[in-house]
Amino acid sequence: MAQNRPPRPHSTAVSTASTGACSRGCSRTACGGVQLAREVHLTVTPTLERVRRLESAVHRGYFARLNPARLGLGLLAYVEVLLDRTTPDAFERFSR
């Protein structure tokens, strides 16, 4: 029979800290787990095991947020405009 117990403090800390580490772009491979382990006051091995369990259960992936300006990219937007009339006068008013 399963009991409804509150999460253990370290489990919650690993979940919270790993979420924060992911948002800072620090996956377990990039940091080697050392920084994350420090943040949750555990050794590396149990920290990485808990992160692995989180990844298999709830994490949806790791993402990179790129800086378009540093990549030399501008803004590209596709916009669709529907006019209720297609007369020259309507086009003129729209273009202002």
- The sequence of SSEs as H and E is HHHHH
What is the radius of gyration?
24 Å
**Average pLDDT score:** 75
Q: Helical amount among residues, as a percent range?
A: 40-55%
In total, the number of strands is: 0
Strand content: under 5%
- Major beta sheet summary: none
From the N-terminal CA to the C-terminal CA, the straight-line distance is 71 Å
Count of helical regions: 5
Shape: elongated
Q: Segments where pLDDT lies below 50 for 5+ residues? A: none
In terms of structural class, how would the helical and strand content be classed? mainly alpha
Subunit organisation of the chains: single chain
What does this structure look like?
It is built from five helices and no strands. With 96 residues, the chain is mainly alpha-helical. The protein has a domain at 9-57. It is elongated. The model has no long low-confidence stretch (mean pLDDT 75).
Jot down its keywords:
single chain; 96 residues; mainly alpha; 5 helices; 50% helix; elongated
At a glance:
Helix content is 50%, strand content 0%. It contains 5 helices and no strands.
Q: How does the SSE layout of this entry go?
A:
Blueprint: H1 9-23, H2 28-31, H3 34-40, H4 44-57, H5 88-95
Helix pairs in contact: 1-3, 1-4, 3-4
